[in-house]
Amino acid sequence: MDFDTDYVEKGIELIKKEFGEAHVIESAKGVFSETNYPKTDKFHRLVFQSYNLPMEEPYYSLIKILKEDFSFDKMIKIIDSFAAAEGSSFFGVSAQRLGIQQDKVSQYLATIGKMIKDMFQIVRELRIIDERLSLYEKSKKGDESAEVTLKGTWIDLVEGGAKNPASVFGMASELGFAILPDLFFSINLKSADEVDARIKKMMDNNEFNPSVLRVVARKLKSYYTWKEHTYKELKTRRKFTLRYLKQHYDTIQLYLSWVKPYIDTIRQLQMNNKLKNDVEVVSAFESAIMELEFIATKSDIYYKVKSGNKKYLPVVIVNLTYRTRPSMSFSQEYQRGPIHVGRVEISLRGYVWTNKELEKFLKVRRMEQFELISSYDADIKSTLEALGDDLEKYLEELEQEKKSKNESNEEKKEEEKIKYTDPFVSLFDGFKELFSSLIPKMPKIDKSKAFNWFNNPEEIKKLKDKDEKKSASKAVDVALCKSYEVFKKSHRMLAW
Predict the structure, then answer these.
(1) When comparing pLDDT for 380 and 103, which is higher?
(2) Which residue has the higher pLDDT, 409 or 314?
(3) Domain boundary residue among 237, 252, 267?
(4) Are 292 and 201 within one domain?
């Protein structure tokens, strides 16, 4: 197969960067070329062609052999792509399905975009509420500037400013109460209950005109009542808005989780340019090319590697490259779908890898393929980051509140438990103190010193690694050779 040169060269560069050397094969008679696989001496390749047998059979046959006969039950699919000729019926059916998925995705993305726009407004509202609440908090601590700011806000919002003749500034300019604003802003109290006592004291001392003081008392009473109620209202409003923000954020995440499978399906339904430019795909022919690749390993060893009990994995990489003639068939139960017949090229490669090397190979494959959803996730992430640290701060505040509430409930349960079990605990503690003096304490043995002569950790680790690598290598050899042999025999090929 003649693949896109840039794609292959990029894959070879990544393999060399991560593994040092690429696998070289004889792609044609006397022609040797590098592949986008790490170097290995465990390699089998065969070409199978049939215009009577559906091409799905070789793929599932290899999975069955590796899984049931050799216990390679951990399967990781890493490549699943196709390309069809533009004039083929298979292309038309695929394009129709692609259009349906794209329409669905566009609806979800429009909703997500609108909700992100709304989230900006919610965060902005929370910022304004926090700004107002900070003035209330500072005023409670005795900050005179904060108190003056709140009084000015009350005059502007509640009384209507200087335009209202009954306001503090209106009475000063139109009714002759010139000293009223100075008295109103200079008298700072903690609550509305202190207003009467303060004004009575000023009247007793004959500090100002009683008429002016009565107006000041009325204004201060109204202001401090407003201040107390608006503070509570702002706290409640902030609490509600914070929960609404969390609900909004969770809804966006939910929509993202819904849209991801559709985007991934679109990526799968889109024609692969690497295969589409192949010389064997002709627009006027009923032709298609597919590439499938999966990794087979053993799940019990795979999970032991994660826990640190094992180091080496037996790994088999299976690659199938199809060149087929799709024929459309009708089904009463479902709809029209393609049956692929033609030619498949199968490559089997065996490796003995650590878990780190396996993850490295998967990383290379991910970098080779175009990940549509990752780019969209990056755009969503950058958009949410534009909200600054406030969004993260508000969400974290809710989590902390929820966590502290759960902890307090657990503490109450624990206190109740101790309350009911305390007499029994005290009773057993008494028996422990009584009998502990009668039982002699045994001296502790230092096991590391006692067995130091027998135990050499470095040598044992080397021997253990060598045995594990040998065991994994044997498992790969048996699975690779026997799978190749069984597949050939089951399809009536020459095998010896």
Answers:
(1) 103
(2) 314
(3) 252
(4) no
Q: Mean pLDDT, the chain, as a whole number?
A: 75
Query: Is 103 domain-assigned?
Result: no
Residue 453 has pLDDT above 50, yes or no: no
Indicate whether 67 and 159 sit together in one domain: no
What number is the average pLDDT over the span 6-19?
78
Residue 100 lies in a domain: no
Number of structural domains (the chain) is 4
**Per-residue confidence (pLDDT) for residue 372, from 0 to 100:** 40
Q: Are 359 and 91 in contact (CB under 8 A)?
A: no
What pLDDT does residue 182 have?
A: 81
Higher pLDDT, 208 or 71: 71
Average pLDDT over residues 75-90: 74
Residues 162, 239 within the same domain: yes
Query: Which residue range is the domain that position 59 belongs to?
Result: 40-85+281-373+447-496
Largest Cα–Cα distance of the chain, in whole Å? Answer: 121
pLDDT for residue 275: 58
> What tokens appear for 201 in the block?
């004291």
Flag whether 55 is in a domain. yes
Q: At what angle do helices 355-368 and 299-307 cross, to 10 degrees?
A: 110
CB 315 within 8 A of CB 351: yes
Q: In this structure, are 424 and 330 located in the same domain?
A: no
pLDDT in tens, 150-159: 888 888 888 8
Check whether residue 310 and residue 332 sit in a common domain. yes
